Amino acid sequence: MWDLASLRSSDLSLTKVIVKNLSSGTRVVLKSHYGYEVEEVKILGKERYLVAHTSDTLLLGDLNTNRLSEVAWQGSGGNEKYFFENENVCMIFNAGELTLVEYGSNDTLGSVRTEFMNPHLISVRINERHQRGMEDNKKLAYLVDIKTIAIVDLIGGYNIGTISHESRVDWLELNETGHKLLFRDRKLRLHLYDIESCTKTMILNFCSYVQWVPGSDVLVAQNRNSLCVWYNIEAPERVTMSSIRGDVIGLERGGGKTEVMVTEGVTTVAYTLDEGLIEFGTAIDDGNYTRATAFLETLEMTPETEAMWKTLSKLALEARQLHIAERCFSALGHVAKARFLHETNEIADQVSREYGGEGTDFYQVRARLAMLEKNYKLAEMIFLEQNAVEEAMDMYQELHRWDECIAVAEAKGHPALEKLRRDYYQWLMDTQQEERAGELQESQGDGLAAISLYLKAGLPAKAARLVLTREELLANTELVEHITTALIKGELYERAGDLFEKIRNPQRALECYCKGNAFMKAVELARLAFPVEVVRLEEAWGDHLVQQKQLDAAINHYIEARCSIKAIEAALGARQWKKAIYILDLQDRNTASKYYPRVAQHYASLQEYEIAEELYTKGDRTKDAIDMYTQAGRWEQAHKLAMKCMRPEDVSVLYITQAQEMEKQGKYREAERLYVTVEEPDLAITMFKKHKLYDDMIRLVGKHHPDLLSDTHLHLGKELEAEGRLQEAEYHYLEAQEWKATVNMYRSSGLWEEAYRVAKAHGGANAHKHVAYLWAKSLGGEAAVRLLNKLGLLEAAIDHAADNCSFEFAFELSRLALKHKTPEIHLRYAMYLEDEGKFEEAEAEFIRAGKPKEAVLMFVHNQDWEAAQRVAEAHDPDSVAEVLVGQARGALEEKDFQKAEGLLLRAQRPGLALNYYKEAGLWSDALRICKDYVPGQLEALQEEYEREATKKGTRGVEGLVEQARQWEQAGEYSRAVDCYLKVRDSGSSSLMEKCWMKAAELSIKFLPPQRSLEVIRAVGPQLIGIGKHNAAAELYLNLDLVKEAIDAFIEGEEWNKAKRVAKELDPRYEDYVDQHYKEFLKNQGKVDSLVGVDVIAALDLYVEQGQWDKCIETATKQNYKILHKYVALYATHLIREGGSAQALALYVQHGAPANPQNFNIYKRIFTDMVSSPGTNSAEAYHSWADLRDVLFNLCENLVKSSEANSPAHEEFETMLLIAHYYATRSAAQSIKQLETVAARLSVSLLRHTQLLPADKAFYEAGIAAQAVGWENMAFIFLNRFLDLTDAIEEGTLDALDHSDFQDTDIPFEVPLPAKQHIPEAQREEVRDWVLTVSMDQRLEQVLPRDERGAYEASLVAASTGVRALPCLITGYPILRNKIEFKRPGKAANKDNWNKFLMAIKTSHSPVCQDVLKFISQWCGGLPSTSFSFQ
Length: 1430
Hints:
By secondary structure, the chain is an alpha+beta fold. The protein has 70 helices and 28 strands. Helices cover 58% and strands 11% of the residues.
């Protein structure tokens, strides 16, 4: 604790401040050196540092060391920030400027601009360790910006280093000597910067802690679970690492040891550093190399100690402590340096003993040290300064530096100069340095000797150079020939060419120039001597330049050689785009089109899109231009171009895909533009909604779907409300004009003020009142009254509460504030209770409200006469009469006229009783009451009674019938008919029938024809309506209405009667009846009956009902055309249901007509059969045989039809051949000796893969070849099968390699199978086998060839184009031993035919016999060596 006291001068100004430490009693006197008044004094920095202000200066002090400073300082309003982390200097930060003040100094140490005042981002070092030759050492490191560090020498005030880093710096610190800077970036990478060499080194990743060890240049850092220590920071790659299990929290140094403190869980563990290694660095810094040597000698040789020995050796040499340097080199194993220094030390020691002083200053020692540093000129200068010429010459001779030795001898005129030269020459010859000896002879003018030595040394180029400079040597043809031979042998062709050209041998010169790629000389020579060769040489020159990657230079040479393609390639390779365009524009379109896109790509990368578009267009690559514009975000140009060359749907797919990519990259605006460009704004709206960019979403909805804008606002309001973003939700609710939703949102969140504000602003005149009411209700009591009074809505709230049946709240409000409203609330509450049926409670409330009459009326309304009379008598006597009248009305409703009369008379209301009797038709009672109580009205009542009596007559059905009979008896037949027709009695149809028949009978007998016709037409439908069809028909027939009679019979399903009437009365209607009868049968599903009437209709009905067997059975009894129409329909149905095998059986049974409309059915059956699994076996023979027989029947029918020799006919012939191969293969698979025949058939089928599933065909061929040991073919076919399976997965065959099937008749262009035909397990087995064979490399990937030099299974020989016939047994080409059949184009290989016959004889296989039988039918019989089927 410190105490402040002040001393004032005579003018009472504050001149001195005494600061006293209350605990220790020490005092510090603070005063201004300039006599200024001390205005403000503060003790800061853990009560150690003192800060005071005067009008023009700032006083700072360290109270522990009594170091005080006063510096000039302009007041800045007290905005300064002080940092006391450094014990030697105070850092003051104000308005972006950092000022440093050293305690005890009255001048500012320095000032810099920086915005970063974190103490971890500023490092100041002030004379913290004494260094040799440096009195003051003051340096500052700070951040200029987040990625730039500046280092300043505070003594000189200049910048000594600037570090620009690629990442943000978050920590930095200088070492104590200010020579090294450590800094760490945000990626936790630790970097070391050497200020002297300006080199930056990254020394550690994931650095979580770093600190210099106090008093040394040892560095400690943590990398994850490793403690890293650099004992020699000069070798940052030498780091000592040890594992730790916690985090480093600090360093402690004292008591002769240094410890790293690490927290491991709840405990702190100390890791001790090697103090000896730390001391070594300290000794080096102190210049005590002897102590450093002694310390190193105690250590084992490790990479760390090796680095220390090297450092010590360097420093010892610099300090001329040669014995220590000798020891260092010995320790490092540098024997030569150690021996050399040992000899040097002996010389220095001897000189020191003989002459005294420092022996290291002796000239021989200094010269030897210069020699050690390889500075031989300095050693020579030292020797010559002492006139030790011999020693200098000896040094050079010992080093074999003869030139320098001779130069010294020449300079000093040494007598042994000539001897030296001879010795030098002899030494060169002895050491086989003929080149240097030749140079020596050349310099002495002996050309022939020099050339001889050059050639001996294998340097003919030097010999040639010498010859070319001397004419006399050129005349020596033998010598020249010898040199040129050596040059050519050494591949020095250009020099040989120069020599040949010099001796006028242009042919040899040109050859040498060409071989040596000296094309400039070759072209120049050719222009003079061989002009025809110039073009060829220009092209060769261009080729050479291309090989040398000098593409730019090659362009013009290609142009000169008229090699346009090479010129274009060179221009593109050299990126000479304009020159490439110039050359391309001169070429034909086919040549240039493939190069334009490459140039276009360059201009697209330069964003010169118009040029790039033009070039893409020239190269027929418009799609690439579209992609370019799309990637550049120039959607309008891309869309404009796309619409010119692409289908609109493709443009949409392209743009939508690109937009989705933009969306993934967060480029929502670009994605929006793409969606809108292809008129898909809904996708853009969905995108913005997904990423919660609601403003953009609303903008698009308003633009493209204005009718949905309100719904969208409402939807967004609900979402934002659910997320708790109420202000944003309010905006959208109000935009959707849903203020009620906004109010409810705020209500549910308890934000009543917001709800009231919204209701008042947007809800109309009364909405805010309702919200205020709900708000008050939520508060209740006095708080509710205060709120409503504040809003001026108290009375309105009471009314609103009553209106909404909140009577308890209404009573509470009226009780607290408006007592005069209480009766009104009681009345309304009573009315509510009445509506709820709580009459007793309502009675009490009516009475409390002072409205007993209302209670009486309530009971009257509910006919509780007793209660009504009780209340009336007790509280409202005037209402008793009304109660009696009401009670009388109730009695009248119950027909208790006597009781009602008594009550009305009690109520003195006889007039009401009179009226009730009249209304009930009780005229006698009415007359009685009138006579007794109102005699004045008796006469008028009697007249009224007489009028009513005259009006009364018969009513109802009986009345109508009776009236009709009366009219009939009176002869008024027309009126009688009308009455009969009016009879309607739903309970008696017989009565209605009798009346209507009577009306018809009367009309026929007595009324005119027209009238009778109308009656009959009216009666007939009515009779039909009640099910009397026969009666209606008879009436129609009475008036010759034949069609109406027929219709009546038809409606009554009296078909025989209808037919008889039509036949007898009007035959024109026979067809009419038949047609309706057919429709009736069809509607009733009576197909069997319909067959006899209309067989086609019956067949169609069978089809509709799915009775295919009956349909086909019935159709079989019809003609061939009808049969095959329904066979085709049934086959189509079966195929759709996946029953191609049943469809095939159908055609096996009924034959295959050559109807073009059936062709697709046959093709589909064929396709399904060849794609079916499990058909590669002997058991599948009958399926293949059925397919073969159907196709054979079809082809035979096609021959006889108009479709003969058409493309369809040829296609079915091919399908027949394929089916025959499959059937024959299945037959062969049943016999072991025909295994190779089956394999050959599988291979032969590959030439038809345009009709077969390619993957299945290659798999079956490969497996068959593998089974019979044809491994080359098996490998190729199964490899192709794997390629096809990959292509099916990728959806394209573009990546297939066809090289294995060149010069074969296996097609390249085949349909891509829609699915995998081989299961995954079998595909994996094939993949493993192919991989195994590939690794073994024992097979040659080549298909076997025959005597034609062609693939053995290929029908066409690639070399001649001649097509061979396929063998009927194997499908292989027949090259010799042919057996021909009667039908042209059908043949077999004799060996295969005999093999097949032999297998049949030995096995008696029925399926093989069936194959022979089919071949006999197909080929017009078997050869003479046929086999009997019997």
